[in-house]
Design goal:
Bound molecules: zinc ion
Structural class: alpha+beta
Helix content: 25-40%
Number of strands: 5
Oligomer: single chain
Radius of gyration: 12 Å
Distance between the termini: 18 Å
Largest sheet: 3 strands, antiparallel
Number of domains: 1
Length: 68
């Protein structure tokens, strides 16, 4: 079950998008309001885009590295 989750997370494309200075966004992974760089996290499983913060992006990257 845990492996399945890891594979689901690995099957995504993450693209960084720089937000304008001072603007904020809500991370859809941790739910916190953040400023700075937002990342668009596209799940190939669901086809949905999620906006995530840098912390969550690093977390996703760590999971990808662990799988690969
Ligand atoms: Zn986050």
């Amino acid at each position: 079950m845990k492996k399945k989750l890891l594979l689901a997370l690995a099957a995504v494309m993450v693209t960084a998008s720089l937000t304008a200075c001072g603007s904020s966004f809500t991370c859809e992974m941790c739910g916190e309001e953040k400023t700075g760089t937002s990342y668009t996290f596209k799940s190939t499983a669901t086809g949905e885009d999620m906006t995530i913060c840098e912390d969550c992006y690093k977390l996703v990257n760590d999971v990808m590295n662990a799988v690969n």
